[in-house]
Every structure is written in structure tokens, then in C-alpha cells.
Amino acid sequence: xxxxxxxxxxxxxxxxxxxxxxxxxxxxxxxxxxxxxxxxxxxxxxxxxxxxxxxxxxxxxxxxxxxxxxxxxxxxxxxxxxxxxxxxxxxxxxxxxxxxxxxxxxxxxxxxxxxxxxxxxxxxxxxxxxxxxxxxxxxxxxxxxxxxxxxxxxxxxxxxxxxxxxxxxxxxxxxxxxxxxxxxxxxxxxxxxxxxxxxxxxxxxxxxxxxxxxxxxxxxxxxxx
Length: 225
Prior knowledge:
about 20% strand, about 220 residues, alpha/beta, Rossmann fold
């Protein structure tokens, strides 16, 4: 399925009324995320994987200059992309499913993990969020989250990081672990079911597996209800 230049690949569940996981991806995984979920013995769910995004623009909450010479400007168009996701992509995905999903979950890695948490502050569509190795170093984002009313957040929020992600020369990127821990502590203290899972490696290691871990955690929390 193609919508506004985005490619949406749907991997349907085997059982009716399974959770629907919306996953924003840097590139098409060709089913690898689902394979990793099977390896982890994850419960059944439908996956809608969205690729073809203008990564830096559409997943950043506000504009930001490039962080290094090989980087691009962050356009701050997350609000516009969230509107597209909710008004066009999600309805189109649901129309393809034979049954209404029991709930809708949102996951993402890196900037898509940042976007997932930002989306939680802008709508009440998603019952759980997985920010996998999320780019929570983003300027002023920690302060933005700490200023939110947590009563409006989803009930379940998953975070993960690699244990070497903060070991970088870039002063902004070095803040990713401290920022993530501060956000997790804030949400937990305000009654949100929140977890931070640390993985071995830097930001670029085992992205599919880390994403699958986030999906597994979300679906487990939903099934506990």
C-alpha cells in the first residue's frame, strides 16, 4: 500500500482481534521484525510497517540544525506526519483487516522512537508506546516531556537503549541515557507503567531485535488487562 509517498506493509495476525502495532521504519524490514518477534515467542499481533519517510523532517517535533557534517536539518514536521498517520494511514490499514484490532500500539527506533513518545503527548489513539533506542537527546525534548500532564499518556511505555549509546564524542548525543532515565523516572513516579531495558552495544546494533523486544513488552502488558 502506498499513501503520500509512504509504503505500508501489513503483516496480519493469525487470530482475530489481535493488537495492531504501527511501526515507523527507516527502511523496509521485509518481515525481519516479525521474525525477531517469533524468535522471542511474542504473542500474536498485526504489524503495519511504514517506510519511505522523510526521516529527519517528519519525525522531529521541532526544527533543529544538523548535529554533524554528514547530518541533515531536522525539519520539525512531526505534527503534520502524525496527522497523516491518524487521518489516512491508520484508517487505510484498518480497512484492510478482517477484524477490528483489540487495541492500537505505536513503536519506533531512533528518531521514530522519539516520534512515538511525542505522539503520546498529542493524541490518545495508542494504548502503549515503544521508544526503542529513541533519540531522546533531541534538544529541549526532555524538558518538554517533564512538563506534560501524565494523566493523558498511554498506560504502558517501553524504553530501551544500548549500553554504549552515550559513549560518544558528541556532547548532545552523550545526553541520551541521562535524558531517557530522567523521562522514565518522571513517568514512573506519576503512575505510568514504564520500563527501561538496556541492551549491549551502541545505537546501530541489533535494531530489529530491540524493536521486537519493545513490541513483545507492549503486547504482554496489553494482555495482562
